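Practice problem 4.
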């Protein structure tokens, strides 16, 4: 039986880390920090046809993400974040 050493443990932990690492970094992390501090905002209509925020409204705060204007609900909901 193989002796459990610190080296072996580190090896196992390193392998686990690689396996569980998230998919490659997205264009913009869908969190509040990115929304508020990482994007330029303008008022307009969210381009998501299923948007819950712009229904019945003329303008909301939107940001250009993946060449589409979207509101914070769609941004945080991961719209177009394939
Ligand atoms: Zn929206």
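Answer key:
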């Amino acid at each position: 039986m193989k002796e459990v050493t610190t080296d072996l443990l580190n090896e196992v932990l390193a392998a686990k880390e690689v396996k569980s690492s998230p998919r490659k970094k997205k264009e913009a992390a869908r969190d509040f920090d990115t929304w508020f501090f990482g994007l330029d905002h303008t008022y307009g209509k969210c381009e998501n046809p299923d948007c819950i925020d712009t229904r019945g409204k003329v303008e909301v705060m939107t940001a250009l993400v993946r060449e589409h204007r979207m509101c914070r609900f769609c941004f945080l909901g991961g719209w177009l974040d394939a």
